[in-house]
Amino acid sequence: MTTETRTEAPVLTGLPVFGSMFDLKNDSLGTFLRARRDHGDVVRITAGPPGIRSQVYGVFSAEGVQQVLAGESANFRKDNAFYQEIRESFGNGLLTSQDDDYLRQRRLVQPLFTKRRVDGYAEAIATEVSTLVTEWEKTGRTSVDVLHESTRLALRAVARILFGTDVDSAVEVVERCFPGVGSYVLRRGYSPVKPPRDWPTPGNRRAAALHKALYEECDRIIAERKAGGRTGTDGDDLLTLLMGAESAEDGAFDATELREQVLVFLVAGHETTATSIGFALHLLATHPEVQRRAHEEVDRVLDGRTPGAADLDALPYVTRVLKEAMRLFPAAPVIGRRAVAETTVGGVVIPAGSDVIVSPWVTHRHPAYWDDAERFDPDRFTPEAEAARPRYAWFPFGGGPRACIGQHFSMLESVIALAMILQRHGFEAVDTEVPVAPAITLQAAGPARCRLVPRA
Description:
Blueprint: H1 21-39, E1 42-47, E2 54-59, H2 62-71, E3 76-77, H3 81-90, H4 99-109, H5 115-119, H6 122-138, E4 143-145, H7 146-163, H8 168-190, H9 202-226, H10 238-244, E5 246-247, E6 251-252, H11 255-285, H12 288-302, H13 316-328, E7 335-339, E8 343-345, E9 348-350, E10 355-358, H14 360-363, H15 383-387, H16 407-424, E11 425-429, E12 436-438, E13 442-444, E14 449-454
Parallel strand pairs: 2-10
Antiparallel strand pairs: 1-2, 3-7, 4-14, 5-6, 7-10, 8-9, 11-14, 12-13
């Protein structure tokens, strides 16, 4: 009988007093990459002066990620400070709820996200893509910021699917309020000292006003729907379905729960998909040969017609482009958990109560799974190549029992959008490099402008 060797985690080298605090503040993604490169697949990272110092364990191998998200998921909970800030800002919806609350919500919502149900949203997605591209053409646009335009598109698409015809007001409120709320959550999540939210500081007051506007918009739409006001064109918009979700075991959502689910779907549902579409277009613009192959597939398969859900399997190269874009620019570059009990990952002890992160940004660049990892190559996602890699070498939608419930919706929207845009335009990069920074989701720290090349 052999006994597993258990060791303490190596510590990322930092400053004597402040540890890696300034590195994390200035470039957290680069810091996590350096931690894996210099110290291995499980690393302890410290930040802050003595007395208020925090520490986090980074787990970067595919096998370790699988253990955290799937194999021992019950031991790694969404109990860290960052999730608490998201919970206080956006409510206790599917993204942040736990235990019995999460299981009940998941059971009520799961029937609304079956493949058949989600495929029914293809027409609404196509309508919004067509509107966007037609606007470019009517206004004579010669260049666009593809990340900004993808965010507009994804927000309008998810709002239409949530609310049916009631789109414009919700889009305006989210565009106005979400960036400020996201910045507030990020600052508080990473700050070792934060004043209570009810203290009348300027930051708290600004955030409270933005929260109030988001909540009131959701409550207004829900109240109108309950009173028999506007609905989707055929009554199967997601809000109507959420209001009707009920079972003998789990009951139904009350008004507060409805608002919290709507906020999660509205915010998380557009930010993640927008990142995938926007960076896919940027990468195509900087790789003309890949763009040519994508154009050829779209032209051959669609022959000018609007794609639907049934076309996804017939567009494997476009799908591979999106998967490779999600490898290089995962919408959730870092995923946090907290260990309930002491455990061992890769032979390294992680004490009970420790904050733990897994990072698609790092694991998607791990040299054990990806040759020349910074190179854009959609053929990494042929069926044969995917089968040869560990399951959690690529995990842009998380994994295990907390995997994103909307991943099929995100892929459906992304493939339809990319195919329709490529039918009518080519792209040439103006900004060849786009700096990024993590917030609640991955954010561009600069423009991603591309010249539009109309196609005959």
